Amino acid sequence: MPGGPAWLSADVSQGAWVLVVALVLATAFGVYRAARDGRFRGTHRVKGAVEEEVVESVLAGSDIDHELGERATLLQFSSAFCAPCRATRRILADVADVVPGVVHVEVDAEHHLELVRRLGVARTPTTLVLDRHGREVTRASGAPKKDEVLATLARELA
């Protein structure tokens, strides 16, 4: 019995293929997430808003009482045990210190679930760039890079 029973080699072969397929799929998903993580792209339609009515701040009706920036506001949704949220906090605070008229506001997603649902925030950290009126201009899910935040602000504030 040098090769063992035929059914055993067939099971091992099938199991190896399942493992290979699982590894390929996991790697593809990881590459996809790495490519999209922290990138600013588009906006999200605010639930309950009519297209022509989106002239008020996304924070209207919420209990967040923070003054918006003269030019823009970096609105960050975080959670307590989110490691990328801490890095994002540092990056956005640095950008707000460097760019005049820009402020950084951090919101605890766990304590503002109604706002999270209304704005369609699916994960933390999520950063919304708001114009001076508080309207969403663009957003990024995941930890953005400082140079990308600066480039996005330069593009959106021009």
TrEMBL record:
Identify the InterPro entries for this entry: Thioredoxin-like_sf (IPR036249), Thioredoxin_domain (IPR013766)
Q: Which UniProt keywords apply?
A: Membrane, Transmembrane, Transmembrane helix
Highest taxon in the source lineage: Bacteria
Q: Where is the Thioredoxin domain?
A: 44-158
Record's keyword annotation contains Transmembrane: yes
Membrane-spanning residues: 15-35
**Transcription regulation keyword on record:** no
What name does this protein carry?
A: Thioredoxin family protein
Provenance organism: Nocardioides jiangsuensis
